[in-house]
Automatic annotation (TrEMBL):
Signal peptide positions on this chain: none
Cofactor(s) for this UniProt protein: pyridoxal 5'-phosphate
GO molecular function: lyase activity
Similarity-based family: Belongs to the class-V pyridoxal-phosphate-dependent aminotransferase family.
Organism superkingdom: Bacteria
Keyword Lyase: yes
InterPro entries, sorted: Aminotrans_V_dom, Aminotrans_V_PyrdxlP_BS, PyrdxlP-dep_Trfase, PyrdxlP-dep_Trfase_major, PyrdxlP-dep_Trfase_small
Species this chain originates from: Saccharomonospora glauca K62
Pfam families linked to this entry: Aminotran_5
Protein name as it appears in the record: Selenocysteine lyase
């Protein structure tokens, strides 16, 4: 310990403590920590007080001066959201679009890719259900073919298989950074290196990773990336980010244009934006967007690498504790995972277990098979639950979760 703060191991220094994480501050600034053990951060994390305060402050302003007038007063603050998001993702502010959610961002990204009959869109088996539904619709309307890449022996997107299906028909490769049900982190950097010189657009769904680990679009080499505000960024619901590389904008077609993406000239001509804001809607919730900006700044103030070290440590503790609970089955991929831990409870209804845990003040989620319909692990008949940690969780909370779960399974035997 370091003045009441937890020491973190630096993976680059052989495990020596390299930083102190102020867990007391993190919990003091998270109101929910006083009443619940929140292990559903991959669903929606607990907002910290600065984020909640920023949202409420703008709503109060709207109530007193009017919505349009409040927006005018917040112009500088809104501009800083793009700057903060650019710092977070390693890009330019002009390459950031603010969206209502990650699913909407992903839909806009895919629909902006010009596709014709015979073209190919390549995805992995971890694709989220709403993404898959969008692709089905796009395939039907354009005649493009959807090619599915299986996982490798470690449960990760198989880059070598991708190499075998890439050809001149391939127009888009879409990879989910971490599946909704958890597991290993997919090799998005390796995919980026493979596609670096190929005339193929590359889209990454980073819903479960932005705010949890370092996500740098320049390092990944993607053209498009989407994420949610409510998950590991700890922002409000109804917020998302879409990154669109400036050099790739000319390869995209215009979708869902409104007055945010258009410019009207006096002679009746219409100009179209050629930056990421082309994807934005003019009408939006300024309060939640400002909350998203506050959440990004809050994450950056902790340091993404420090957050990742903390989450990895807690995830390892969670996996170890679950391994001691009779009746719990854990998948073993052989590679390091992340903050999402999936586990099975054969013979038990996962929804009932989730409800009983909730009554005990512990939040987890059920990993529904329908959320990732292509994934073999999601087609199993046995029950699956998902626990996902964040840096404000503690070792004591994880141990308490394990104890309660063990007791529930014993009583239900």
């Amino acid at each position: 310990m370091c003045g009441g703060r937890m020491e973190l191991a630096d993976p680059n220094t052989g495990g020596d403590p390299a930083a102190c994480f102020d867990i007391e501050r993190a919990r003091a600034e998270t109101a929910g920590c006083g009443g619940v053990i929140h292990l559903n951060n991959a669903g929606s994390a607990l907002m910290p007080r600065p984020v909640l305060s920023r949202v409420m402050r703008h709503l109060e302003l709207e109530a007193h001066v009017g919505g349009y007038e409040a927006a005018e007063l917040a112009v500088a603050d809104v501009r800083r959201i793009y700057e903060s998001a650019a710092t977070l993702l390693g890009c330019l502010p002009s390459e950031i679009a603010l969206t209502e959610n990650a699913s909407r961002a992903w839909q806009l990204a895919v629909q902006s890719v010009p596709l014709s009959p015979g073209d190919r869109v390549v995805i992995g088996v971890a694709e989220y259900v709403s993404n898959k539904l969008v692709l089905d619709a796009v395939s039907t309307t354009t005649g493009a073919e959807v090619v599915v890449v299986p996982d490798d022996e470690h449960g990760r997107f198989d880059v070598e298989f991708l190499r075998t299906v890439l050809d001149e028909r391939t127009k888009l490769v879409a990879v989910t950074h971490v599946p909704v049900y958890g597991g290993p982190v997919n090799p998005v950097h390796e995919v980026g290196r493979l596609l670096r010189d190929a005339p193929v657009l590359y889209l990454v769904d980073a819903c479960q990773t932005v705010g949890q680990l370092r996500v740098d679009v320049s390092d990944i080499g993607c053209d498009l990336l989407t994420t949610a505000g409510r998950k590991y960024l700890r922002g409000p619901r109804g917020t998302g980010l879409l990154y669109a590389r400036s050099s790739s904008m000319s390869a995209l077609r215009n979708v869902c244009l409104d007055t945010r993406g258009l410019r009207w000239f006096g002679n009746g001509e219409v100009g179209v934006r050629r930056d990421a804001k082309l994807f934005e809607a003019w009408e939006a919730s300024f309060a939640t967007r400002l909350g998203l900006g506050a959440a990004i700044d809050y994450a950056l103030s902790w340091g993404i690498d420090a957050i990742w070290q903390r989450i990895r440590s807690l995830s390892a503790r969670l996996t170890e504790r679950l391994g001691y609970v009779p009746g719990v089955l854990l998948p073993d991929s052989g590679v390091e995972g992340c903050g999402l831990v999936r586990f099975r409870l054969p013979g038990n209804d996962p929804h009932r277990i989730r409800r009983e845990l909730r009554r005990a003040g512990i939040n987890v989620s059920v990993s529904e098979r329908e959320l990732a319909p292509l994934a073999p692990t999601q087609r199993e008949e046995t029950a699956q639950l998902r626990a996902s940690v964040h840096y404000y969780n503690t070792e004591d909370e994880i141990d308490r979760f394990g104890d309660v779960l063990e007791l529930l399974l014993k009583n239900n035997a």
